[in-house]
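Structure, all five chains, one model.
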Amino acid sequence: MKILGLIIAILTGAFLIYAAVDFPDWADPTSPASTYLSPRFIEKTIEETSVPNIVTAVLADYRGFDTMFETAVIFSAAVACFFILRIFVHGEPGERLYRHVLTGVTIRVKEGKIPPSDDFERIDASWTPHDLIIKTICRLLVPFIQLFGLYVIAHGHHSPGGGFQGGVILGASIILLAISNDLRTAVKRMGEKLVGLLCALGVFIYAGTGALCLLLGLNFLDYAALASILHVDPITARSHGILIVEIGVGLAVMTAMIWIYNNVSSNGEYDEGL
Amino acid sequence: MDVVVVLFLFAGLFFFTGGAIGILRFPDFYSRLHPAGKLDTLGLLLSMIALALFNLHHFSLGTVLTSAKIIIIVVFVFLASPTATHAIVDAGVRAGLGPWTKGEQRR
Amino acid sequence: MIWQLDLAILTLVVIAGIGSLMVKDLLGAAILFGAYSFMMCLLWTIMGAVDVAFTEASVGAGVSTVFFVAAVFRTTRRTKD
Amino acid sequence: MDGQGEEGLASKGSRTGSGNGSAGAEAQPRRLYFYPFFLTFIIMFVVWVFLSGKFDPFHMSLGLVSCAIVSYLSADLLFPSRVTKGAFGQWLRFVKYIPWLLIQIVKASLHVTYLVFHPRMMDLIDPRIIKFRSKLTSDLALVTFANSITLTPGTITVYVSVDGDFKVHAIDKASGDPLPGEMEAKISKTFGEV
Amino acid sequence: MDSIFLYSSMFLALLMVLSLYRGVFGPTVADRMIGVNAIGSKTTVLLILIGLVYHRVDMFVDIALAYAMLNFIAVLAASRYFQKRKGLYDEA
């Protein structure tokens, strides 16, 4: 069976390589894409949207539908993860481990009861002593990573980046917090309900902007319609519309990353993570 | 100016080479980390300084800021790289990997 | 495009890809897959597709490796084949 | 390299309860204090100016909003205790400490590079574990010390406890011997510990 | 100057092959982590070198910065695995 798979894979690969020979060369000026499509965007993007980074303009404005459904796909991936993995069991209460911070004594407490004093901290079943270096350095680095993520979202117009990348970096900062401390610390900072709501809100911002344009009398996702609300000319309105949409994408992607990580690493119990 | 840039760049590449060869030659996990984690960091520092200097050739606000960003990368790596090295050592210790001592077989 | 560098990175992509397929240990495969996505990011960069390279750097290098490790953590490290 | 203390106590416990989802039940609401928030905001804004490089009002206002968001989210990460006194002097002394560290790093790197390229490398290296107890007390000083040790090639911090117990892996006798020594003295001066 | 940068980046790519050897054939998972971490730091330099060759460093700096940050997170997560699950030789 393995050999058969190998043969099929090699045959397909050979066929693809054979087909790839007919592709136009890299940056060939006579290829179909470069003859009329690319020059159109390269020449008109600045005067139509005043966005120097053409990729951002194409992604969020000219092909806004595409990006909207990409965001929806990420949202539904997170929701699918949630529905498959999340467990709500109301069986008999299990036991939780608490550790006395000063002496290191560990006790077991039935779920739902409170430990004897405030000096106890909740620990995982497979707990190891906190690593001082990792904990401290991550504590110092997380704010800067978050700032960088926000910078990437805000400067998608001028440099590479945008909602997707910035959202992933923002999500990674919270994941870093969960890795360096434990999952409960991160969940305390970003609760489950908040994460779910923000994820939906991100998609809603995107689709809502499009619908607002529709209500204002232009096509769906034609940001020029926002000019009357933002009190700017239509070209700047398109630029600002792209920014609003990017913020929506960033929110959705960030929370989707956190949501997926929380569910996968804790097996859907939101209790003990990686 | 160019001489300084090339000098720094080659010094950085020299330490990178030391790191790459060291990873291959050293006998066990712990001693491999010595060249990998640290010589690489120093090589990164030197070559980044070279690139930041070269970037300042056309002196303007934009290039100064870009060079500052390159230096920010160096600062970040100097915070993050020892932490990553420590994390890898910690992983080895927890996994029960014994350190190599003199006279043993290399692994 | 710089064809010498392109060729070198393409070779590295192939090595990393085959390596991550061949490794029996799933954790090792996840880590090697991170190396694969580093190479892909470099490849996009050499082609000049900066935005795609950024996406690959942020998603491939960071978060997807973390997801894979989390999935291995909750399932098993052995593969059947 | 034995286990690290009390970890055996909790190791093989049963998996705690199948959870009713009330993970954050015992969570206390986070307080937001003014000085940490303000300091974080200032630091973040300086970094933002370096990152952004655009000084028109639109991008500056975006920067202000972003810095406010970051300070709101993680001011208590950067400054966990409310007391922020003396942080500035610490920073100045820390900047003075960096050149010394860089010189040490270069020196030790040359040593390790010599080892790497030496044809009879296997005879020269003699890995060992060094244990010592540091006088430093604060977390930040300990972490700086540990990371400085790791950054100096030839030595890696394997384990640090909160009390200052160090385990260091050194590649040969020459690189392991000078510890803790001068580096610890410099750091204790930097962080104002006697 | 461009040719110097080009040859330096070629040389870095060669060094990455050496590190990748440790990644692919490393006897244990920890060795693989060393190899991949070493590749990450070389990649950061390589990105800026490519930027200089293309004369657009300002575009590539952001990627390098994001790279340095996220590579660190991946290594931390992989090492965190061993704090929770013991055993190195699962690769039977």
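Chain E has one domain: 2-84.
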